[in-house]
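Regression test case RT-17, inverse folding.

Input:
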């Protein structure tokens, strides 16, 4: 094995979780290689809204999300990865949701995370097209950012290459051999690399390497549908917008005193429950607006049950609900897609260590864009025993 093929760390999987593990390892002076099976990431990392919203996370993960904000902004100050600090707002549509906003604002005050309650009039003034018959109150988070997911991951990896990361695209790992003090990794095209440690962050694909572990992992897959309008003429949406159904769904609100009673009043057979719909809006850099999304679930081993097609009943429901919230200049749709997100059914994410030096870290689900940068920092420190990092 040549010195060029020896690393302190090999990361398998070039999505957001794997890439930020590589980033933090490099920040600690480690020699790192990143292997991605495709020419560029194709999974959940590039099939989401690109909202970095620690506000939606429970107290534990909000800490990771807030660290992620710091990391995103620090990298953006050195290299353009499409980060825009425009904030996020949750818009309440009734008195139950208003109460949850008031309670979350109090929790944020205690946690020293900046948020600002906005009156109905302030919301209508700031957000053009917001329907007066929908909004009751808003809760704004000025520190939060958005990115363009399909641009961001490539730009981030370009930055990391500049500062010394070795990236190998179109490399499918088929074997990890654990030896005395290191691990040897083999790909389908007979490339071999070695490292002191390997971190596998390639979603449900780790079933190829460890099928028995995969079958025991309790991973589930969520299918999310999203869409993109045509460019909105002479229109600016000044931040990410999350609405009443998001207030009823996001983990942060589950810590509010009124949450249990609010959830108890919901109709169990509603379309939004059936399809896991909550309505989000984000304006892309080209002026179009991203709208979504939905959540359909299946065990990771039964991913095919989710189907390859978009469910147009879901898309039509999302659009009809969106029109109750914003009068956009156009609701003509130019693009529709879905993303598949692996997540762990009974834990925050899936982690398993093999022979001390092979670490499977996956199943971060919808927390990936917001939580990966912060979580990866802590995980690298733990794996490499960097107590003073």
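Golden output:
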């Amino acid at each position: 094995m040549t010195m060029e093929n020896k690393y302190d760390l090999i990361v398998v999987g070039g999505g957001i979780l794997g890439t930020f593990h590589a980033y933090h390892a490099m920040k600690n002076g480690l020699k790192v290689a990143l292997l991605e099976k495709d020419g560029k990431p194709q999974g959940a990392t590039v099939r989401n809204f690109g909202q970095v919203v620690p506000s939606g996370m429970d107290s534990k993960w909000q800490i990771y999300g807030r660290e992620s904000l710091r990391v995103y902004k620090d990298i953006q100050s050195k290299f353009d990865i499409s980060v825009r600090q425009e904030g996020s707002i949750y818009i309440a549509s009734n008195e139950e949701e208003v109460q949850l906003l008031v309670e979350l604002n109090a929790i944020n005050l205690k946690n020293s995370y900046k948020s600002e309650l906005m009156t109905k009039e302030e919301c209508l003034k700031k957000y053009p097209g917001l329907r007066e018959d929908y909004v009751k109150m808003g809760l704004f988070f000025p520190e939060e950012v958005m990115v363009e997911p399909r641009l961001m991951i490539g730009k981030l990896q370009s930055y990391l290459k500049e500062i010394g990361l070795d990236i190998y695209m179109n490399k499918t790992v088929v074997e990890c051999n654990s030896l005395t003090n290191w691990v040897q990794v083999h790909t389908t095209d007979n490339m071999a690399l070695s490292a002191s440690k390997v971190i596998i962050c390639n979603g449900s694909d780790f079933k190829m390497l460890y099928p028995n572990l995969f079958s025991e992992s309790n991973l589930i897959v969520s299918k999310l549908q999203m869409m993109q309008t045509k460019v909105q003429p002479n229109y600016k949406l000044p931040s990410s917008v999350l609405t009443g159904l998001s207030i009823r769904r996001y983990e942060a609100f589950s810590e509010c005193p009124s949450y249990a009673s609010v959830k108890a009043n919901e109709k169990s057979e509603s379309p939004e429950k059936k399809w896991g719909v909550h309505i989000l809006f984000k304006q892309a850099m080209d002026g179009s607006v991203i709208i979504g999304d939905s959540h359909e679930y299946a065990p990771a081993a039964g991913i095919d049950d989710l189907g390859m097609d978009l469910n147009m009943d879901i898309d039509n429901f999302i659009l009809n609900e969106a029109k109750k919230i914003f009068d956009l200049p156009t609701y003509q749709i130019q693009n529709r897609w879905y993303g598949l997100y692996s997540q762990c059914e009974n834990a925050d994410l899936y982690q398993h260590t093999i022979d001390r030096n092979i670490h499977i870290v996956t199943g971060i689900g919808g927390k990936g864009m917001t939580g990966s940068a912060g979580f990866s920092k802590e995980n690298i420190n733990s794996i490499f025993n960097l107590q003073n990092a």
